[in-house]
TrEMBL record:
Residues 5-339 form the NAD(P)-binding domain. The lineage of its organism: Bacteria, Pseudomonadati, Pseudomonadota, Gammaproteobacteria, Thiotrichales. GO terms for biological process: nucleotide-sugar metabolic process. Its EC number is 4.2.1.46. This is dTDP-glucose 4,6-dehydratase. It catalyses: dTDP-alpha-D-glucose = dTDP-4-dehydro-6-deoxy-alpha-D-glucose + H2O. CDD domains: dTDP_GD_SDR_e. The keyword Chaperone does not apply. Keywords: Lyase, NAD. Belongs to the NAD(P)-dependent epimerase/dehydratase family. dTDP-glucose dehydratase subfamily. It comes from Cocleimonas flava. Coiled coil: none annotated. InterPro entries: dTDP_Gluc_deHydtase, NAD(P)-bd_dom, NAD(P)-bd_dom_sf.
Length: 356
């Protein structure tokens, strides 16, 4: 039985991991630590609040004393670190918080783990694990014909966000090699699914269609990303935590490369079809383009490209498959339909988060 601290567990990927873990390991003890910034949403975890083996703590990963206190008082042996500032646009307009959270914050958790699990004889846990969640953006960008990123790819981050994550990856690695902390790291591709804050591409476009707002497309819209359904990400972390391999890095992707325009058209066509097949949706979302006889694609608007916009990311997850047998369960076609269903059914979650 594991006793976990999940940092950033009220955010998008963290919350989905928490639900995944509690479904699959209902006897494990879990503590979620989240600062509840704009992207951390405590109502995302409401379904768990009455469970005796679940605890939510509002607080920052920058608070080393708090992290140490939780590790000791809750007798925790595993940390899964999702806590991060993750929106590239925000890192361009205000990079300072990305360095404070992603670099200094991660370092403070590592210091806490080292002190409690290694240095203190009374609380030491030889079989501890610190799992760090990172991104494929640390590798930079690819052209159209290049093979996907492997774990041996040289780091070449291009935004303040990806640079801060690259820095945190190196610090995690150093704590393993220098201090003997049992660590593992995943560099994942773009995640999508329930509970994603509506500034990211897929929830932004879904909620804009439902409100008859423009769908802003950067540049030509031909930038390519690999897309990973969020539960498949949780499954991957599960495999790594169950293994005895420490100090290793695994790339985790969905084997789903799509350019942005193809995704946008798929979203528009899927929403138009949903409204055509279910008249009740027009009553629930009277502002929506398809509720008013319009095509969702009519809302597409091209805008100036983002500064330093990477052209293509692609993941080579062959190491993960070979060593731990990882395969994603969802295709993009199946995962996106689940995602659309969730946003249509959970207006009370996303509507209060909208800023315009």
């Amino acid at each position: 039985m594991k006793r976990l601290l999940v940092t950033g567990g009220a955010g998008f990927i963290g919350a989905n991991f928490v639900y995944y873990w509690m479904r699959n390991y209902p006897e494990d003890h879990m503590v979620v630590l989240d600062a509840l910034t704009y992207a951390g949403n405590e109502p995302s975890l409401d379904a768990l609040k009455d469970k005796p083996n679940f605890k939510f703590v509002e607080g920052s990963i920058a608070d080393q004393a708090l992290v140490e206190k939780l590790l000791v008082e809750e007798d925790l042996d595993t940390i899964v670190n999702f806590a991060a500032e993750s929106h590239v646009d925000r890192s361009i307009s205000g990079p300072d918080i990305f360095l404070e959270t992603n670099v200094i914050g991660t370092h403070n958790i590592l210091k806490a783990a080292r002190r409690v699990w290694i240095e203190n004889e009374d609380t030491a846990k030889p079989n501890h694990r610190f799992h760090h969640v990172s991104t494929d953006e640390v590798y930079g960008e690819l052209d159209d014909d290049s093979p996907g990123f492997t774990e041996e790819h040289v780091y070449a981050p291009n935004s303040p966000y990806s640079a801060s994550k690259a820095s945190s990856d190196h610090i995690v690695r150093a704590y393993h090699h220098t201090f003997g902390l049992n660590v593992s790291t995943t560099n994942c591709s773009n995640n999508y699914g329930p509970y994603q804050y509506p500034e990211k591409l897929i929830p932004l476009f879904l909620t804009n269609i439902l409100r008859n707002k423009n769908l802003p497309v950067y540049g030509t819209g031909k930038n390519v990303r690999d897309w990973l359904y969020v539960d498949d990400h949780a499954k991957g972390i599960d495999l790594i935590l169950a293994s005895d391999k420490v100090g290793d890095i695994y790339n985790i992707g969905g084997n789903n490369e799509w350019n942005n325009m193809d995704i946008i058209h798929l979203l528009c066509e899927s929403m138009d079809k949903r409204f055509a097949e279910n008249p009740e949706l027009a009553k629930q979302y009277p502002e929506a383009a398809p509720a008013n006889g319009k095509k969702s694609a009519d809302l597409i608007t091209f805008v100036e490209d983002r500064a330093g916009h990477d052209w293509r990311y692609a993941i080579d997850a062959s190491k993960f498959k070979k060593e731990l047998g990882y395969e994603p369960d969802e295709t993009f076609e199946t995962g996106i339909q689940k995602t659309i269903d969730w946003y249509l059914d959970n207006e009370e979650w996303w509507r209060p988060l909208l800023v315009n």
